[in-house]
Amino acid sequence: MLFIGLDLGTSGLKGTMLDEKGTVVDKITIPYSLSMPEPGYSEQDPSMWLDAAKEAIRKLSKDREKDIIGLSIAGQMHGLVILDENDNVLRPCILWNDGRSVEETNYLNNVIGEDVLLKNTGNIAFPGFTLPKLLWVKAHESEIYARIAKIMLPKDYIAYRLTGVFASDYSDLSGTLFFDCEHKRYSAKMLEIAGVTEKVLPKPLTSHSPIGYLKPEFGLPHCLMTIGGGDNACAAIGTGILDDGEAMISLGTSGTIFLPTSAFRLPKESCIHSFDDANDNYHLMGCILSASSCNKWWLGKVLCEDDFSEFAIPLEKLGHNDVFFAPYLMGERSPYNDVKVRGAFVNLSLSTTKAEMSQAILEGIGFAFNDCLMAAKKLGLSVKAVRVSGGGSRNVTMLHILADVLNVSVVTLKTEEGPSFGAAILAMVGAGQYVNASEATKAIVKTKNTILPDPERVALYAKQYETFHKIYPFLKQLEK
C-alpha cells in the first residue's frame, strides 16, 4: 500500500510517497512561477498548480497505480481562488503574501472593530487573510465579484479538480477571517460583512476526512483523497507536534512558529493567530514574512554568490555581534501586522565585515521568532523544545541561534519533507491505516538530532534581544 502527500507551495509543488510503514518511497518537486504585477502584489494562476499536481501524481504513481490507496494535500494558506457558475477561474489567485488589501484590513480592524473580529473569528484582520482580499475584489473588480459562484483556498481547488468535491478543512479555513475558529464553523456575521453566503463556500471538514476517490481520468482506481490541511498544520503532523508544550518552527520562504493547544486561546493583545489544527484541536501561530528569503536576498542579490549552503559562522562568534538586522523585507505579520515596514541593518561601521552582516541576518530571524514566542507566552504557553522543518532547517548555525535566542532545545527530524510528509500521514489516517493522527505520528515520525541552548549565549542573546526589540518602533517612523 502506498500513500501520496502533496504540498502546494508558493514556489512549487512537492510530492512525497510513503509505504504502509511510513517510509519515504519516492519524492518529487515541480517548480512554478510567481507573478508580481505591481509592487506589493503576489499572484498565481491556479492552472499551474493543477498541472503540477497532475505531473506529480503521474510520475509518483508510474508502475504503482494499483498500490496507491490514499492521497492528501497541504496548501499555502489564505489565497483567494474564485470560480464562476461554470467553474472557470475568474482571476489569478491573490496569494498569502500579497499586500494590496491594506485599506480593507484597516476597515475591518478599525471600522468593524477588532473586538467584533475576535468575537466572531478569534483573530484580527491581516492583509494576507482571505476576507480582505475578497473585499478588495469587491471594491476594485466589481464585475468579477458579481460573477463569483465558488470561493476556495488553493489546496481546495486542487481537491475539487481531482475529485469533484467542494470541501475544505478547519485548519485552512482558520486563515480566511470568515470562519469561527473556536466553534469550527462559518461566522454568520463575517459572511454578512463579506456579502456572501455559505452556498459559495466549501464544506468544512476535519483534516483527516476522506472526501472521495480520484476521478477515473487520473488512473488511480483505489486512491481515496483526504482533504488535508493548511501547510503549517500539515507540517505539524509531519513533525509530530500535537500536544500542549510542544512547538514547531518552519524555516521556508517565510517562517512560522506553531504551538498546539488543547484549549482555544484568544490573542487579544498581539498579532499572532489562533487557529484550528489538523488534529481536531487548536494552535497559536506566529508568522514572520521573511525567513530563508532573507538569506537568499543577501547571498543572491547583494553578494551575488551562487552557493546557498550554510553560512560559515563559528559558534564562538554567536552572541558577540554588534550588527543587527531587522528581517522585514516584505513587511511583517507577527507580532506587528505591518505591511509597510521594511528591513534594515543597524549599527554598521567602517570595520563591519561581510561575516558580521551574514551573522546578523540569521540572528535577526531568530529575534523575530522570539517576538512571536513572547506573545504566545503572554497567553500562558510554555515551550521547552521545538522541532524544525523546511529548507532552512539544514542550516546548523541557524539552529544554534534559535536554541540560544529562544532558550529551548531544537530538534531535527529524520524526514525533512514537512507539509507533504504530514499530508501523506493524513492520507493514511483517512484511508483507515491509523485511527488518528496521534497514533500515526507516534509510529512514523522519528527525531534525528537535538541542539541544546548554551547558557552563556542565552544570556548574551537576552541582552541583544532587548536592543533588537527597539528597532521596529524606529523603523515604523520611517514608513511612507
Task: Tell me what the structure shows.
The strands form 7 sheets. A 7-stranded mixed β-sheet has the order 17-18-16-15-21-22-23, sandwiched between helices. Strands 3-2-1-5-14-13 form a 6-stranded mixed β-sheet. It has a two-stranded antiparallel sheet with strand order 4-7. Strand 15 and strand 16 (255-261) form a beta hairpin. The protein is of the alpha+beta class. 35% of the residues lie in helices and 22% in strands. The protein has helices at residues 46-61, 102-121, 130-140, 142-146, 154-163, 170-173, 188-194, 231-239, 292-302, 354-377, 396-406, 419-430, 437-444, 455-468, 471-476; strands at 2-8, 12-19, 24-31, 43-44, 68-75, 81-83, 93-94, 150-152, 167-169, 179-180, 185-186, 203-205, 210-213, 224-230, 248-251, 255-261, 273-276, 282-288, 324-326, 344-346, 385-389, 409-413, 447-451. The protein folds into 2 domains: 2-239 and 418-426, ATPase, nucleotide binding domain (Nucleotidyltransferase, domain 5), CATH 3.30.420; 255-415 and 447-476, ATPase, nucleotide binding domain (Nucleotidyltransferase, domain 5). It contains 15 helices and 23 strands.
